[in-house]
């Protein structure tokens, strides 16, 4: 009998799919590699169209029962899942760090607690979901949120479990069943989530986890006619292929697609704060879709800003993400490192200057990089690198700052550093972005709508917006007369 369990830093992880409440192995596997030292973690079941069909069938069969489950019972089970996450927080943290290379201290203190919060928030939000009835010529309108059906959720490798549960929790709260397809570069915590959900009492088939490559199992999932919602976080090219598949079945979809976000630093800004915000963009080795990778600084303070930035960036500790002192870990995969370095080397060849960094280090580590002397229409300014690479440009006035900020095909986020409240109001009103931060960064609340404009995505999730997406909204109109008296 084949052993399908691997041990990761003392934690047992099942490498098989989770379909219909059972572990299911595939005939073939793929190798999961740790970015920390590029060692093989284990062989993971590699899903195909067969496993995709089985998972959708299981989700479809489980849907009527879960949809009919009362809101209070659904909420109770989701809170039980959150309890399970909190009990296994240390296991989840070390497995995630081993699998995707993000900082262990961040997983312990922020990311995994946020995973539990995702379940608690949407469980509680479900119970407060309401729309006041309203009258139309004496008729009563009543709005309700009906579960839509099986949902395919495809999640990225940069924050695997947190971003997965950001989708899984509202989809389940809404009464849907789920097929979760984690990224092949970081599949392990999705498997642990299946165990936690089962232990919490989630019925078989309500949550299914299918591992594998997007071109194989992913494409089979998003093209399945029984899927009623698709939510994807990832790249624009992949999103376009998913949208084509969804269109064939008119399957509603939500897309969160990264960005090329600006950080606007005005001369009246607190420069210490502004440089702190800029250096923070190296978080998770630059593998953050919301990162403000284009730093735009007013000319009069550009030299001083750059001096302070270089000084603060030099204090960053890059190394093993399991070490509490580490600030920047490795990039996820050799292929991603090649991509990052390719962007930088082409930019330098085109005339850019590396103020800091601009080169690989040992293993999958890339030196934090700041490039200046870059043209607005250059590749390095226009395309998402998804690594620890920032560009710095200057502007002469507010109008130019806004023009440069908006001059990409993306529109996910923006950050503004200024000491003038009126300027902040003027500038933020003109920025094309789903989220704008003023004198802060990465302050996120699940009540807020989240998503991007332009090529950064389609739709919004968070709070009631999540339920609007994961449900079929119904309006029932009732006449004031025509009733028989049964008294």
Describe this structure in a few short sentences:
The protein is of the alpha/beta class and 487 residues long. It is 39% helix and 21% strand.
The oligomeric status of these chains comes to single chain
Strand residues, percent: 15-25%
Helix content: 25-40%
Average of per-residue pLDDT values? 97
Low-confidence stretches: none
Task: Tell the overall outline.
Answer: globular
Describe this structure as you would to a colleague:
This is Betaine-aldehyde dehydrogenase. The protein is an alpha/beta fold and 487 residues long. It is built from 15 helices and 22 strands. The chain has a seven-stranded mixed beta sheet with strand order 16-17-18-15-14-19-20, with helices on both faces. A six-stranded mixed beta sheet has the order 11-10-9-12-13-21, with helices on both faces. The radius of gyration is 24 Å and the shape is globular. The model has no long low-confidence stretch (mean pLDDT 97).
Which helices and strands occur, and which strands form pairs?
Blueprint: E1 5-8, E2 11-14, E3 17-19, E4 22-24, E5 29-33, E6 40-45, H1 49-68, H2 71-87, H3 89-100, H4 104-128, E7 134-136, E8 139-147, E9 151-154, H5 160-173, E10 178-181, H6 188-199, E11 207-209, H7 214-222, E12 229-233, H8 236-249, E13 253-256, E14 262-265, H9 271-279, E15 294-298, H10 302-313, H11 334-349, E16 353-356, E17 369-372, H12 379-382, E18 389-395, H13 398-406, E19 413-417, H14 421-430, E20 435-438, E21 457-458, H15 463-470, E22 471-478
Parallel strand pairs: 9-10, 9-12, 10-11, 12-13, 14-15, 14-19, 15-18, 17-18, 19-20
Antiparallel strand pairs: 1-2, 3-4, 5-6, 7-8, 8-22, 13-21, 16-17
């Amino acid at each position: 009998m084949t052993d399908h369990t691997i041990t990761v830093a003392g934690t047992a992880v099942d490498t098989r799919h989770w379909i219909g409440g059972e572990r299911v192995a595939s005939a073939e596997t793929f190798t999961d590699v740790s970015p920390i030292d590029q060692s093989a973690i284990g062989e993971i079941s590699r899903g195909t169209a067969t496993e995709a069909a089985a998972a959708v069938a299981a989700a479809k069969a489980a849907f009527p029962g879960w949809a009919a489950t009362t809101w209070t019972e659904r909420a109770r089970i989701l809170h039980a899942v959150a309890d399970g996450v909190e009990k296994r927080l240390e296991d989840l943290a070390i497995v995630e760090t081993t699998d995707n290379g993000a900082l262990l201290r961040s997983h312990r203190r922020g990311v995994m607690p946020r995973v539990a919060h995702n379940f608690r928030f949407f469980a509680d939000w479900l119970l407060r979901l309401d729309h006041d009835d309203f009258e139309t010529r004496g008729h009563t309108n009543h709005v309700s949120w009906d579960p839509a059906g099986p949902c395919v959720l495809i999640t990225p490798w940069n924050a695997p479990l947190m971003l997965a549960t950001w989708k899984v929790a509202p989809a389940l709260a809404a009464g849907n069943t789920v097929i979760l397809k984690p990224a092949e570069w970081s599949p392990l915590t999705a498997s642990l989530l299946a165990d936690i959900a089962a232990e919490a009492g989630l019925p078989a088939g309500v949550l299914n986890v299918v591992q594998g490559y997007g071109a194989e199992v992913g494409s089979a999932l998003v093209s399945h006619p029984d899927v009623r919602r698709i939510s994807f976080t990832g790249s624009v090219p992949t999103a376009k292929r998913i949208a084509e598949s969804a269109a064939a079945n008119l399957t509603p979809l939500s897309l969160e697609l990264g960005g090329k976000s600006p950080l606007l630093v005005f001369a009246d800004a607190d420069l210490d704060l502004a440089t702190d915000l800029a250096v923070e963009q190296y978080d998770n080795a630059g593998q953050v879709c919301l990162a403000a990778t284009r730093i735009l600084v007013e000319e009069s303070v550009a030299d001083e800003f750059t001096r302070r930035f270089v000084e603060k960036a030099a204090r960053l500790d890059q190394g093993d993400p399991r070490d509490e002192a580490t600030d920047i870990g490795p990039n996820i995969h050799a292929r991603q490192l090649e991509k990052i370095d390719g962007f930088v080397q082409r930019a330098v060849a085109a005339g850019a200057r590396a103020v800091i960094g601009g080169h690989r280090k040992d293993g999958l580590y890339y030196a934090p990089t700041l490039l200046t002397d870059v043209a607005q229409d250059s590749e390095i300014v226009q395309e998402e690198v998804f690594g620890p690479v920032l560009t710095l440009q200057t502007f002469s006035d507010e109008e130019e700052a806004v023009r440069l900020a908006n001059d990409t095909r993306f529109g996910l986020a923006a950050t503004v550093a200024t000491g003038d409240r009126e300027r902040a109001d003027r500038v933020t009103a003109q920025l094309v972005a789903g989220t704008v931060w003023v004198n802060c960064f990465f302050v996120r609340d699940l009540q807020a709508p989240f998503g991007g404009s332009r090529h950064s995505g389609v739709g919004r999730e968070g709070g009631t917006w999540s339920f609007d997406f994961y449900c079929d909204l119904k309006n029932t109109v009732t006449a004031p007369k025509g009733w028989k008296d049964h008294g």
